[in-house]
Write a structure and sequence with these properties.
This protein has 200 residues and is mainly α. 83% of the residues lie in helices and 0% in strands. It is elongated. It starts with 6 loop residues before the first helix and ends with a helix.
């Protein structure tokens, strides 16, 4: 209740969920995951090994589906997270409302926490709505509860990090476009560095 007493969190969450954009993003998010999972399943079912009931092959299919869902979630969280926070502070400057916020009784820490928390809560909604899709792998085998918990925890940490990254650039930039470009450029460099590190 103390967290929800923050007016920034209440305003941001209500504004995001009252508009069509929030539900549209959620629908597109789940539709993309479902589409790619269907494509992967059809691709793996072409040789008929799934219908034969081979346990080892079914476990492999389950692992592939689970890994695909987690990878898609990671990519979309990386794309959506900064877009939710890169304009959190800079947009207030552009609308010339930042000075009004600073003269209110709301502290700077509460303002930043409210902006960050509202974005993270929405990303958590996206992450947890995809868990039923991940659970499809349980019917095929090869994936346990430990993998589900670890992957969910990894996605939550990633969501918090990318939201904080967008908020960081938004606090320094005077324009939302500058903050957005800086956030995505940093994410792209981190992915390239990670890819090079894995391939070495």
């Amino acid at each position: 209740s103390r967290i929800m007493d923050n007016p920034v969190i209440a305003k941001e969450l209500k504004g995001r969920m009252r508009h069509r954009q929030g539900f549209t993003m959620l629908t597109v998010y789940l539709a993309l995951i479902g589409f790619f999972i269907g494509v992967v399943y059809l691709f793996l079912a072409e040789d008929g090994s799934i219908s034969s009931g081979d346990p080892s092959y079914l476990q492999t299919v389950g692992k592939v589906i689970f890994s695909t869902v987690v990878l898609l979630e990671l990519l979309m969280v990386s794309f959506i997270g900064p877009s939710l926070t890169s304009g959190a502070i800079s947009s207030e400057r552009e609308r010339q409302t930042f000075d009004l916020l600073r003269t209110s009784l709301l502290s700077g820490r509460a303002l930043v926490f409210g902006k960050l928390s509202s974005a993270v809560v929405y990303l958590l909604l996206l992450i947890f709505t995809a868990i039923p899709v991940q659970s499809l792998a349980f019917f095929l085998g090869g994936v346990g509860m430990a993998e589900l918990v670890i992957s969910t925890l990894m996605l939550v940490v990633t969501a918090v990090f990318f939201c904080a990254l967008g908020l960081f650039f938004s606090s320094f930039s005077k324009r939302t476009l500058t903050a957005t470009v800086s956030s995505y450029a940093t994410i792209l460099r981190s992915f390239i560095f990670l890819l090079v590190f894995i391939l070495m």
